[in-house]
Amino acid sequence: MYLKITNLHKHFETKQGTLVVLKDINMDIEQGEFICAVGASGSGKSTLLRQIAGLDQPTTGDVKIDGKPVTGPGPDRGMVFQHYTLYPWMNIQENTEFGLKLQGIPARERRERASYYLNVVGLSKFAKSLSKELSGGMKQRAAIARALASEPKVLLMDEPFGALDIHTKESMHNFMLDLWKRTNITIFMITHDVEEAVFLSNRIYALGARPGTVRREIVVNLPERSCQIKRQTVFHDYKDELMDLLRSHGQEAITAAA
């Protein structure tokens, strides 16, 4: 397995006692898959992503990328956040090169690699623009180019389209599918948007809440990935299955808390 999460638990100590955020998380992700983890607030989605990114360490269990334990951040994982985190004083070319500069990549290679990935995401004409001159969708594409420039093994995405309007989000979904097909990169994305998860991923991990657990793994087999598929019964069947699962577990969590 390319990305393997084994028996991962995460808890925090609070004034009220031990808060268990993630419990017994097990995931096996192959190279080139597009995986979504879906859950409501309280399911530990962002905490899980932090463990994979190496920004935090599991209480118990482990995360491995290509057989190697994750012990901290590294260039083998690219990160894309909901908010674009572009440096406003740098142009888009400089933003894309920034991570490479930190890695000590020579200037010429930085320029060539950044230019290549800006072309991949369709922003070559805006390389000298500042982020304030770009639309929301363009800013997110720039953030994706920056993450790809380090040529990571896994692209991690934290609710990357949550701040976009519905039309821009739809455009970005089509862009991501095209990018995934062209690069064959492994993508792990967290989202609370059920329709987004069904449309983009080839497998979904449904997370229950309080604590976050893997409720079910759903394999998504759609005949096509286009706007038209969203009107078909097969798409709505997946969506309804996932919605019913999350809804039932949410009610169980409320009952247990009471």
Automatic annotation (TrEMBL):
<dbReference type="Pfam" id="PF00005">
    <property type="entry name" value="ABC_tran"/>
</dbReference>
<dbReference type="InterPro" id="IPR017871">
    <property type="entry name" value="ABC_transporter-like_CS"/>
</dbReference>
<dbReference type="InterPro" id="IPR027417">
    <property type="entry name" value="P-loop_NTPase"/>
</dbReference>
<dbReference type="GO" id="GO:0005524">
    <property type="term" value="F:ATP binding"/>
</dbReference>
<dbReference type="GO" id="GO:0005886">
    <property type="term" value="C:plasma membrane"/>
</dbReference>
<dbReference type="InterPro" id="IPR050166">
    <property type="entry name" value="ABC_transporter_ATP-bind"/>
</dbReference>
<dbReference type="InterPro" id="IPR003439">
    <property type="entry name" value="ABC_transporter-like_ATP-bd"/>
</dbReference>
<keyword id="KW-0813">Transport</keyword>
<comment type="similarity">
    <text>Belongs to the ABC transporter superfamily. Nitrate/nitrite/cyanate uptake transporter (NitT) (TC 3.A.1.16) family.</text>
</comment>
<keyword id="KW-0067">ATP-binding</keyword>
<protein>
    <submittedName>
        <fullName>Nitrate ABC transporter ATP-binding protein</fullName>
    </submittedName>
</protein>
<feature type="domain" description="ABC transporter">
    <location>
        <begin position="3"/>
        <end position="234"/>
    </location>
</feature>
<dbReference type="InterPro" id="IPR003593">
    <property type="entry name" value="AAA+_ATPase"/>
</dbReference>
<dbReference type="GO" id="GO:0016887">
    <property type="term" value="F:ATP hydrolysis activity"/>
</dbReference>
<keyword id="KW-0547">Nucleotide-binding</keyword>
